[in-house]
Amino acid sequence: MEFLNKIPVMDRTALRELKKGIDLSFKEFSRAYGEGIESFFDPLLYFLIWLEKILVSSPWPIVIGVFGLLAWVGSRSIKLVIGTIVCFMVIGYFGMWKNCMATVAIISVSTLVCIVVGIPIGVLMSKSSRAEKAILPVLDMMQTIPSFVYLIPIIMLLGIGKVPGLLAVCIYALPPIVRLTNLGIREVDKEALEASEAFGATPMQKLKSVQIPLSLPTIFAGVNQTIMMALAMVVIASMIGVKGLGVPILQAISNQYLALGMMNGLAIVALAIIFDRVTQKYGQRIQKHRGQKK
Amino acid sequence: MRINKLIISALVILGFTSFSGVANAKCGNISIANMNWASANFMAEVDKVILEEGYGCTVELVPGATMPTFTSMQEKGEPDVAPEFWANAAIVALNKAVDEGKLHSINLAPITGLGEGWWVLPHTLKKHPELTSAAAILERPDLFPHPEDPSKGGFHICPPGWNCELSNRNHFRAWGMEAKGWKIVETGSAAGLDGSIAKAAERGENWFGYYWSPTSIIGKYDMQAVDMGEWGGKDNWDNCIVKPEQECADPKKTSWVKSEVFTIATDNFKKTAGKDGMDYLKKRVYPGPVMNGMLVWMGENQAEGADAAIEFLKTQEKVWSKWVSKSAAKKIKKAL
After folding, report:
1. Which pTM was predicted?
2. Is residue A282 in some structural domain?
3. Residue B196: closest CA among chain A residues belongs to which residue?
């Protein structure tokens, strides 16, 4: 009876030893390899610092102009361009320019990292079902594991600041682009593939000129989702020392500063909407192009 | 018949209640604030064991945080005791409540050697024994490279939104640290601040920044307080250092303000726990190293305050037996 009423539990001291052992072995790992791993990420750090410096120190009209131009290139919609410019002006007007630029810098770099890392993984998954089976649970874990859990080892390994923040953002924001790349390539028309094979395309050629172009709209939806998720991590990243719009939000949380929290929160929302609309419009435009062909 | 039964049962109930009243005549129900940080959690658990086993009180622990608990104690008289109350944040209101007789500041220094300030790691001092004062450290930004800009010295401050964030920023200006080649390291959160220390300590890197004692971090890494020099006066502190930058145009160098940490209790505690309980709280002073040692033990064993309280009572009898009467000490030992 006792067995039924009480779940078997590990001995307390043994459990404690186990936890201690895990902690200790990680500490040893960090002591041995931490410095090496840190210097591996140095180029990324310099790139981040450089980008943020450019964004912050360039004259604001130029920065806003570039954003407007990018919005135009992406969406070809004058409404969106005006919206973008107005949003950034308002953000600047309310004194959030510097933080906003820091956030833009880290979001763009982490999106870039996610694209560079994520698309090849997605391609690999689409090519091999065994790889897909192995990688899917990892992606599930990355998306659901509470971020505070992996912040601790990241800090022990890399300290606090931009790079660990970037890593935390990427862990959360990487899965959608991997998933959607995989999905997009797997969904490419069989007939189109057969046709390319009939013309004697090598697997590499097939991938480069048939599968990826045809799955671009789906891949782009993945990029869009990745950006959105990266923005959702802004506040968490600030908890390990990343400058940006998350910092005033943390200030607001611990002091119940309603207005400060709202303003910076809305600035993140504004960034999200701009990024989302521009990338979505861009994705639609690629699709339209394909639609005309059909 | 029926009426008889009723009367009997009424008598029985009455008897029980009055009986239990007699049993607890010495001490009744008490609630203790169980604050959300380790040392206060540990102290609350120790108080619970000692007051229950030694003095026959019934103790309930109530979760708390500095300001909410204080407000509740002041307005509702509950919880009865806050074992480790950092009073700087509420000193005016506390003094008022003490004057009104609602609250009592029973113990004005329940832990010795505590306080806020700037700290360095011991291995830094071993290599550079001259770096004991802030003035000396500030001359050597090259020893404490900033993680994002190694040409500058990195000064670790409080997470955003904490009061000490503002004061550290003002200290930073008061010491002219920017001109000396220093840059603030944003730590983001308590976990970030702790993590930066842990990482530096594990790797043998130098670390310089703000922290406070009693904490397991201070105990675990044996961190050394930095001498910040003379106290720069109350006016400088209250009207400048603790204010936002715009309201503090001209901060002056100063040591950290003395941390007022009290054990405070409601009037109800005085009535229920009586002289014995009050005496216990008055005498209950943890020496700083003992407290830090317990916090380290908690961290290493990933233990809760309750486990630590038992460990403390078992292993540090010399410390706590001075706090209680002989008969209470016997009872507590027996209960362990």
Report:
1. 0.76
2. yes
3. A159
